[in-house]
Automatic annotation (TrEMBL):
Pfam families: HxlR. The keyword Membrane does not apply. InterPro entries: HTH_HxlR, WH-like_DNA-bd_sf, WH_DNA-bd_sf. Gene3D superfamilies: Winged helix-like DNA-binding domain superfamily/Winged helix DNA-binding domain. It comes from the Bacteria. Keywords: DNA-binding, Transcription, Transcription regulation. This is Helix-turn-helix transcriptional regulator. Residues 11-108 form the HTH hxlR-type domain.
Length: 144
């Protein structure tokens, strides 16, 4: 079955999923936020087939989420670095993480914790706010 493209869809969610919507791509972006930059490190950390990884990395570069840069150690290798567009996915990754923590772990089950680098305290929960600062829930919004 051929994958349908949502590149020109009216919906921004559909366009986003067209660019980064499969789990491998989001896991690659997650790993890039965790400091992974080299093909071999992505492959080892994710356990993904080399061909699949190559395709996903190429697609993320084409989408402007990652860029290829000379290796930071001066070797002949290239590294994948998050672009500004890619760094803009940080809240998406944190939101997915928090949803997973809330819904996919048993009480007391061990997991990693995202902390503030300066204080070493856990980051606060993401919330949506109106222009006037009120906290918004799903029922408080509407698409126009």
């Amino acid at each position: 079955m051929k994958r349908k493209s949502f590149r020109e869809a009216e919906c921004p969610v559909a366009r986003t999923l067209d660019a980064i919507g499969d789990w491998w791509s989001l896991l690659i972006v997650r790993d890039a936020f965790d400091g992974i930059r080299r093909f071999g490190a992505f492959q080892q950390n994710l356990g993904i087939a080399k061909g699949m990884l190559s395709t996903r990395l190429r697609d993320l570069v084409e989408a402007g989420v990652l860029d290829l840069a000379p290796a930071s150690d001066g070797s002949a290798y290239q590294e994948y670095v998050l672009t500004e567009k890619g760094r803009g996915l940080f809240l998406v990754i944190v939101s997915l993480r928090q949803w997973g923590e809330d819904n996919l772990y048993r009480d007391g089950e061990k997991r990693s914790v995202l902390v503030d680098e300066a204080t070493r305290l856990p980051v606060s929960r993401l919330t949506l706010h109106a222009f006037d600062g009120r906290r918004l829930e799903w029922a408080d919004t509407r698409l126009i």
